[in-house]
Amino acid sequence: MLAISTWHPSSTVTHSVKCKLAGNKESLVIAKANTLEVYDLSATGLVLKCTFDIWGIVTSLLAAQRKGRTYQSLLLTTDHLNPQFYILDYDVTGSQPHLLVSYSLPLSVRAGREAEFFNGAVLHPNGKVVVCCAYSGTLKVIVLGGNDGEVQTEFDCRVPELNIHSMCFVPSTSKMILAILFEDYNARKHVIGRELKLDEQELLYEHSPVIAGGFVHDLAKSLIPVPGQRKSPGVLVVGGAYAHFIGSERVTAKRASRGPEVATALSADHSLAKSDLPLDQTGEIRFAAIDDSRFLISDSNGHLCLLNVTRNGPSNTVSAINTLDLGLVSPPSTITHISGPFVYIGSQSGDSQTICILPEAGSDGSHIKILENYTSIGPIVDAILVDPDNSGQNEMVMCSGYASSSSIRVIRSGAELRKSAALHGFPDVEDMFPLRLQLPAMHHSIALFTTSSHTTVLEINRSSFDEQDSKTFPGFIRTSRTLAACNIESHGRAVQVTTSSIVIVDMASSVEVDRWPPRGSPSQQIACAAVNPSQILIALKDGKLILFSTKLGALRIVSEKTVSHVEGLANEISAVSIEPTTIGNQLSSNIAAVGCWAKNTVTIYQLPALELPQKLANSFTVREEHVPLSLLLHTFGGSSIYLMIGLGNGSLVTYSVDPDLGLTNRRTMSLGVDRPVKLAACQYAASPNNPNPAGRGGPKEKVVLAAGTRASILWLDQRGKRLRGSTIAVRHSTALCSIDLSTSSGLGSMLVASKDGTMIIGRIGELNKLNYRTIPLGLDNPRQIAYHQQYDAFAVGCVRTEAGSITSFVKILDGKTFEPRNMISCHADEQVTCVRVAELGPSSTPYIIVGTTSEPAVGNLESTSGRVLVLNGADAKTLDTVASIEVPGCVYALAGIHPGYLTAAVNTSVYVYKLHTPEGKEGFRLTKHAKWDRGYVMTSIASKGDMIAVGDALRSVDLLKLERDKLVSVAKNCNPLWPLGVEWTGKDSVITAEGDQNLSLFKRELSNLERAGGFHYGELVNKFIPGKLQSISNEYALIQPELLAVTSTGRISVISHIDEATSLLLTGLQRNLGYILKGPGDLEHSTYRTPITARGRGEFAGFIDGDFVERFLDLSGNQIEKAMNGRNEAERLTADVTVIRQIVEQIGALHQ
Predict the structure, then answer these.
(1) Which residue has better confidence, 699 or 470?
(2) Could you give the count of Cα atoms lying within 13 Å of 189 in the half-sphere of its Cβ?
(3) What pLDDT, on a 0 to 100 scale, did the predictor assign at position 225?
(4) Which is the most buried residue in 329, 674, 762, 869, by most CB within 10 A?
(5) In terms of pLDDT, which residue wins out, 472 or 604?
(6) How far apart are CA 337 and CA 854, in angstroms?
(7) Mind listing the pLDDT tens digit for each residue in 1060-1075?
(8) CB atoms within 10 A of CB 479
(9) Percentage of the chain surpassing pLDDT 90?
(10) Does 819 score more than 80 pLDDT?
(11) Strand locations in 145-201 (E)
């Protein structure tokens, strides 16, 4: 069974509307695929107030002023295959404002053809009548009520126009006239007006004279209602770089009577006025009304213009249309005028924007000033996971955007680090200890930087670190490595523990106050140490532990203990910790953690006696797979105690310390592979739930810093009491610490990281943040991407459309800077369709492989020729085509297959090619090795060893095996599912993404591929990517992430494998939660997730909806009881609530 959880939500904006949801306060509501977001319009920008999940894809979003109400309601419709109409109201009476569904209505019909062009709703200017179009030939009319009810009536009415492209109500008329732009059976476009009779519940068949109907140009896209006075309203027909105003037949006839020239011009297009638009002739049109005569219009490339309708004469009829080219914005999917010169641009092809329209053009000729960009990674056309610096943390690199917003996007998760300064000249620093003049002081004044052989004392002045000599600060030991240091509770003193001594230093006079061993006594060899404000615990080389007290400002031995030998060997101690863990006592600890070399053990001792707990003593000792080199007892500011163990192999192990049960709830996190983990406690000046990016003046939260291959920060999620971690953008740091700088410096709490002789100083913003990087490509639309690790370069297949011509090429970009390194051009009539890196030949050498297609010949619907290219070179700059082979069609997909072969999906066939490396005078050659041609449209393949999973877009899935020089079908599924993507999951299972927005899981049973699960995903998945994208790897035995799924809306989901026992438990929990938690309009969860196609409904099985199951963590006590009990005894969950909560937390941790 598989669990699906959202890692990155949909980011593309489809609709937006300005409205007054509460009183007179204005809001902006935007729709992102299946989510609504409500923003307040403030002087500083958009302020997010709430979000609302829609179980379906939003197709229209409107705001209606209901009779008898001072506020507006939201109206929205959703897409097939389960179209719905909703009325939503904004509730501000609770602690948090939220949207709630006040009315819902299904729009589906038993037998109907889905509307092909226009799918949505329009609202009459009176705010009372809504017309929805979801099926060809049928309209749903909804008459809204006031305080007496949500809806007065709703009815279906027939419309003769089957292929509607756009429609709107004609404003400022006494009758309800619906203007319709449609396409007839000859592919000609018309505009007509039809009267809607509410009392007769009918759309009249006769054309209304309010609109002078007739033919319009074939590129017409949209109708824009234009209010008028004295019987002069109409509509603008926009598209194909033209705008035409069409009014009533009476006005048109009157204008035509002026003379034959006017009559001839009007008879051509039935328009009263027209104008050329500085827009692209093809593509969609988006518009927004500023007032009754001014409109903003943009094409799909982002060219924005202002259109002004001029009226004159006694009846204010339209006489001219004037346009002004404003400039370039993100290609819009929605435009909303906010107020004055401010406009919101929502985009499905790039970042959304808030812009200001300037009265005068700037130096670049543009009237547009971009005030703010809102990052969107959609549409994701292709994506890969890479680890360019071998740090163990993957980044996702994707082809994103469209038209002028084309780009390469890089995304990773981790803590946000805002670098402020870098101090050079500190080589080989292994640890850092900041000190205050007194323990209660607000900021640090002294820092000890230590290497393996000496210690440097530095004074902290504002943002600088000034080294101090032994004359200025004589008390600190400089000739040895410092193992631990901190301020102690009394007399303004600090303690320093080195490899040979302990000293107490007066911070005011900087002189030594006390020392152990006393001067003149034999020196000691201290292996490791830990300190807190009143205690010191040291471990000598022979395994002896000594606990000191510093309560009186001097050193006093409290207890001693020698750790017993193990199998005759001295059990030398590797790490200790005595961090305070008692609520209300941050000065001392009653337990200590001790790690040993001999058996890699960690033991909890009671203080001050240094004895094992009397109860279940063996439960307080654990054995790890590698030596524990760093220990930390920590509470994260709560009552629970955690033991954190940094191992020498780069892993971090955590336990819960239970006084009655011992060390429980073991978890392992990997922070890399080549460096041991060092731990340090610190305070973070901004809560992850209530960020304070300034890092000053906010409540401080206890966190843990971990230095290793990747620097990381760990904290306790207060929502679910889960231990979570995020990486920090500092690799191979040898030490981390947090320093509180003086408030006068304007810096506050800062992170200091030691790396390669440099101290990096910065502030941590949000703890769990997605970090984006954008590499703009202009009009070079990226289609495919691959990464070659040896070249440290990306190969990006691009298609450029400019001035009606199309060119295609492969860009080679640097793996770090993304600077262009090379470019391989295609033929004039050729386009790149696939780019992959595959290991070919007997030595399994990685090569960049490119698949292409040629333009179909005249009269053909599909391509009949293409090529497979092999790129090779000494480095990225010298890459060139070394081998190629002609193929009989479009190369839809490529993959490497064992042992060293290349497989390609070409039209109806699957080919296997062999690469011949240079021998003698012959160079590289590609030859056909095997072929399988029993398909229709082979669009996707996935290889695993010598097996190939093939997705046929017109049929289903086949499993092929390479046996010498033949491809043999070993299993297949015969159901028509129309898969668009396929990938392996597990040993004999594959997952597919289908055109109906469903996911299917198949398992091999002998020669059949049996469908083992179905899940309605709700979006089209463009690609499955093997791997995981967590900032910190978590090793869980029950749930393991396997795949990532990416969509055109920017959504990224984690697909994880769940073992059988856990699957049964989570299936029962998911079922029981469905009884408690409903979707909009009381939509059942099982109904929404059930796969649905044009042929009917399937079965929701084999998948766990991770986002839905995680809502268990937010339930109240009574709801938890209902979820555990189900509706009868058979549905009762027998597992403990704590166990279920831990499993659900694991699902959440995999995509956090």
Answers:
(1) 470
(2) 21
(3) 93
(4) 329
(5) 604
(6) 44
(7) 899 999 999 999 999 9
(8) 10
(9) 55
(10) yes
(11) 151-158, 163-169, 177-183, 189-197
Phi-psi region of 618 (alpha: psi -120 to 50; beta: other; left: phi over 0): alpha
Structure tokens at 450: 């230590």
Q: Give the C-alpha separation, 127 to 66, whole Å.
A: 6
Beta bridge partners of 38: 29, 50
887 vs 317, more confident:
887
Q: pLDDT band for 1022, please (50, 70, 90 cuts).
A: very high
For tokens 């004359």, name the residue: 471
| CA 239 – CA 144 distance, rounded (Å) | 32
User: What torsion do the CA atoms of 501, 502, 506, 511 make, to the nearest 10 degrees?
Assistant: -10
Exposed, middle or buried, 945 (CB in 10 Å: 0-12/13-18/19+)? exposed
pLDDT tens-digit profile of 222-277? 999 998 765 578 899 998 888 999 988 655 555 544 544 433 333 334 567 888 88
Distance of CA 768 to the CA centre of its chain: 12
Mean pLDDT along residues 313-320: 77
Q: Can you give the pTM of this predicted structure?
A: 0.85
DSSP tag of 402: -
Concatenate the DSSP letters of all residues of 197-245 into one string: ETTTTEEEEEEPTTS--EEE-TT--EEEEE--SSS--EEEEEETTEEEE
- Residue 115: φ, ψ to 5°: -60, 130
DSSP string, 822-841: EEEE--TTEEEEEEEEEEET
Please count the other Cβ atoms lying within 10 Å of the Cβ belonging to residue 203: 19
Token pair 């009552």 in the structure block, residue: 639
- Dist. CA 599–CA 569, nearest whole Å: 10
Q: Give 402 or 398, the one with higher predicted confidence.
A: 398
User: Tokens at residue 88, please?
Assistant: 């939503």
Residue 568 has pLDDT above 50, yes or no: no
R_g over Cα of the chain = 34
Residue 606: predicted pLDDT: 92
Please report, for residues 246, 302, 330, 498, 701, the alpha-carbon distance to residue 280 in angstroms, rounded to integers and kept in the order given.
22, 9, 14, 73, 54
For residues 8 and 1052, is the Cβ–Cβ distance under 8 A? yes
**In terms of Cα–Cα distance, which of 860, 801, 804, 855 is closest to 831?**
855
Cα angle at 763 between 762 and 767, to 5 degrees?
Answer: 130
Residue 951 has pLDDT above 90, yes or no: yes
- Reduce the secondary structure of 760-816 to three states and give it as a string: EEEEECCCCEEEEEEEEEECEEEEEEEEECCCCEEEEEEEEEECCEEEEEEEEEECC
